[in-house]
């Protein structure tokens, strides 16, 4: 579970993420969904609804003593994110342990907000629901946790928000309302069509939920506007009105709507959980409420500067060192071996790189990516294998020549200061030059091939091309996707690889490249 330091300060998972290994040993039903990664760590596949449900139920049981049931065809909440909302409501009403009354609009099958609020703070909740299945499960979850005195689950008509729910309770003033509105306007939006930036990576978790939970006419924007319309009539029947948003673009028009309606007190915040971002909006008609400050921009800058990183455990370093030795690397230091393997992958990807002077226990590469060659790598490798199978086999003598020249090219790549020209024959020198120029953008490579004559009568100055490629090309490229600094260093007995953003068009591309390089190294260990 990827958690973020930008979570609410009181969130119990902020500095102590769930221990999957411990939870798996204690709860057999959760153990069924825990796997071991290539790094030897326990992981959960968030693409599987059963795994997400098992984790949610296990965390609620372990950390809050709650036993709940959730059907797979209804929304499965994530506990850390819901806790963020609960803690922010605590900030709004300025009190955690006092007797408070709240309304949960569309409580869902889990009834998670009322159960957490009642368990943690003793709050009283009126929980509304329009869906029959969600209503039945919510009532069952309240009853089996002995919370019926604090939580009242009511079935309301379709499209009902606050007005109908408060008809029977005309004298009660509620401290707050919470709402996790349907995010999407239609099926296309729910599937990510025309609603998600194409440059963003796909969601890391599965999207579950019934139709009434994830879709509404006009999406979350119109849904929250209906809550604003109800609040203009109810006004001081609630001290705070609040809702959680799934799209940042919904925040500004809703704040503008509140401004037009003359609402005196408005605030907002953001909830961070790994790659998952949510935004919350709150407003009040009371003059004496304390308005929490919105999130500061300084925290965003700190988040941007944090490097991407991954670790290679000690157990797999010997295998990686063997792979590097096969490429001609004679240095026994694992940092150098991993760097050589990374250079090989970058060369194959046509990512320009240049070594930056560093210590023996640390190596640095300055990268310049000019085209995205790392996406769909698996499909590309399969297609290459298929094409190779369809080609006729070359004579044995020719295969030996190819192996020899490739090996020599790898040796020169590992030791750029060696006198490659003196060690290789003219044919091998040309082969090495072809390998080196693969670091260049495609158009540069094609231009070089058109003027290169690889006949035995002419010499190929491999050393000159090698040094010029590694020293001048990365920094001199005008058009590029991004530039970053890649560091390889020892961390106790493991190897830590970090990628620091420098400049470019899209940081998600660097994230993709980091994942590609990590998986490539881990596959080398697994073979």
From TrEMBL:
It comes from Mugilogobius chulae (yellowstripe goby). It is an enzyme of class 2 (transferase). Pfam families: Methyltransf_10. Its EC number is 2.1.1.-. RNA N6-methyltransferase that methylates adenosine residues at the N(6) position of a subset of RNAs and is involved in S-adenosyl-L-methionine homeostasis by regulating expression of MAT2A transcripts. Able to N6-methylate a subset of mRNAs and U6 small nuclear RNAs (U6 snRNAs). In contrast to the METTL3-METTL14 heterodimer, only able to methylate a limited number of RNAs: requires both a 5'UACAGAGAA-3' nonamer sequence and a specific RNA structure. Signal peptide: none annotated. Its main location: cytoplasm. The keyword Lipid biosynthesis does not apply. GO terms for molecular function: mRNA m(6)A methyltransferase activity; RNA binding; U6 snRNA (adenine-(43)-N(6))-methyltransferase activity. Keywords: Cytoplasm, Methyltransferase, Nucleus, RNA-binding, S-adenosyl-L-methionine, Transferase. GO terms for biological process: mRNA processing; positive regulation of catabolic process; positive regulation of RNA metabolic process; regulation of mRNA stability; rRNA base methylation. S-adenosyl-L-methionine binds at residues 82, 106, 129, 180. This is U6 small nuclear RNA (adenine-(43)-N(6))-methyltransferase. It is found in: Cytoplasm; Nucleus. GO terms for cellular component: cytoplasm; nucleus. Belongs to the methyltransferase superfamily. METTL16/RlmF family.
